[in-house]
Structures are given as structure tokens and as C-alpha cells.
Design goal:
Its EC number is 3.5.1.88. This protein is an alpha+beta fold and about 200 residues long. The chain has helices at about 25-40, 75-80, 140-150, 165-175; strands at about 5, 45, 55-60, 85-105, 110-125, 130-140, 185-190. The strands form 2 sheets. The chain has a 5-stranded antiparallel β-sheet with strand order 2-3-4-5-6, sandwiched between helices. A hairpin with a 2-residue loop joins β4 (about 85-105) and β5. The longest helix is centred in the C-terminal third of the chain and has 15 residues, at about 165-175. The termini are far apart.
Length: about 200
């Protein structure tokens, strides 16, 4: 089932998410719905807070990036078919050189900005069967994971921009939170209370 994606301004996007265990209600259905929602919106990642759940769960499918002709064949192969569920993830280490890449977010439609992140991460997590892993990723794969990981930490990519960029985006972000935007996928906009 395709779920509405929570828009910028909703408090759930600012919460540090909670760990879950294998007894989480309707877990398999939730993961299936997250994949459906992400693919419907042409995303490469989706975190549970983006569908209104403050839990440490996100999904990633980096296959669309594998078509980038600027990447080496090795980089393309690493991205192709990479489809994973991350539960209770914890980034253990971020290393390497910081590099900028133009990022966007399904919760912040039509806003794209260059964001600097470290090249390599080591992350511990559990898969959809609650089997534990500790793995190292680099390049675009690390970046996609870092972006989704930020969501379960209550961080948005716009938080990483300069104060000037944030000021320039303020009006557009306010419009998104008020639903004054056209999108091709279902969204849920926060309730805007009028000042008295």
C-alpha cells in the first residue's frame, strides 16, 4: 500500500527515532508499504519518520544511481541491485574526505542543494529478519545511507546547508509545510495553526 509521505515542518521529522524489535506490529506489511511508497515517489531511500513513524527503520535501493555514466564500472556495479532494509542502525564511524553532492528529499519536494558528507561509513544494523551486520560503505552508497540515517536522528539535509542557503530557502520550505506545492505522489502536510 502506498502511504502519504510526511512533508517538511511535521514534528515527526525532528524526533530521534526509537529502536524496534521483531515484535513490532505488522512489521512485514510496514516494510512492504515502505518499498511501495518509495518506488511510487521515485525515491532511492525512505525512512520510517517520513511516513509518520518515529522508529529506527529505513529502506534503500540505489539501483537508479547505477545508470550514472560519470561513475566507474565498479561504482555502478556496487549501486546496481543494492536493496536493503536497515533496522536500529548506528553509524559507528565516518571517515575519508568530505565531498559535495546534490541531494533532495521526498519530504522536501523540489528542493535540491549540494551537501558535503564524508566518503566512507561503517554502520551496524539489522536486516528485515533481525540478523545483525556491521558493514562499511563508500561513495554514493554511503551518501544515500547517511541521508536516510539522518532521518532516524531527526536531521534533514537542509540542516547541513550554510546559514545563507537556509535563509534563501526559508520561503520555499514554509510553502512546502503549508502544502503550497505540486507533487506527483501522496503527501501529508502538517497542520498549520493560524496565529491569533
Amino acid at each position: 500500500m502506498i502511504l502519504p509521505i510526511v512533508a517538511y515542518g511535521d514534528p515527526v521529522l525532528r524526533k530521534v527515532a526509537d529502536d524496534i524489535d521483531k515484535d513490532f506490529p505488522k512489521f512485514e506489511e510496514l516494510v512492504a508499504n515502505m518499498w511501495d511508497t518509495m518506488y511510487n515517489a521515485n525515491g532511492v531511500g525512505l525512512a520510517a519518520p517520513q511516513i509518520g513513524l518515529p522508529i529506527r527503520l529505513f529502506v534503500v535501493d540505489s539501483t537508479p544511481f547505477a545508470d550514472d555514466e560519470e561513475l566507474t564500472e565498479e561504482e555502478q556495479n556496487a549501486l546496481k541491485g543494492f536493496r536493503k532494509v536497515f533496522i536500529n542502525a548506528k553509524i559507528e564511524e565516518e571517515t575519508g574526505t568530505e565531498w559535495a553532492f546534490n541531494e533532495g528529499c521526498l519530504s522536501i519536494p523540489d528542493v535540491r542543494e549540494d551537501v558535503s558528507r564524508k566518503d566512507t561509513i561503517t554502520i551496524s544494523y539489522m536486516d528485515e529478519n533481525f540478523k545483525s551486520y556491521k558493514e562499511t560503505y563508500d561513495g554514493l552508497l554511503a551518501r544515500v545511507i547517511q541521508h536516510e540515517y539522518d532521518h532516524i536522528e531527526g536531521i534533514l539535509f537542509t540542516d547541513k546547508l550554510s546559514s545563507l542557503k537556509k535563509r534563501l530557502l526559508k520561503g520555499r520550505l514554509a510553502n512546502i509545510s503549508k502544502g503550497k506545492i505540486k507533487v506527483e505522489y501522496r503527501m501529508r502536510f502538517p497542520n498549520i495553526k493560524k496565529a491569533r
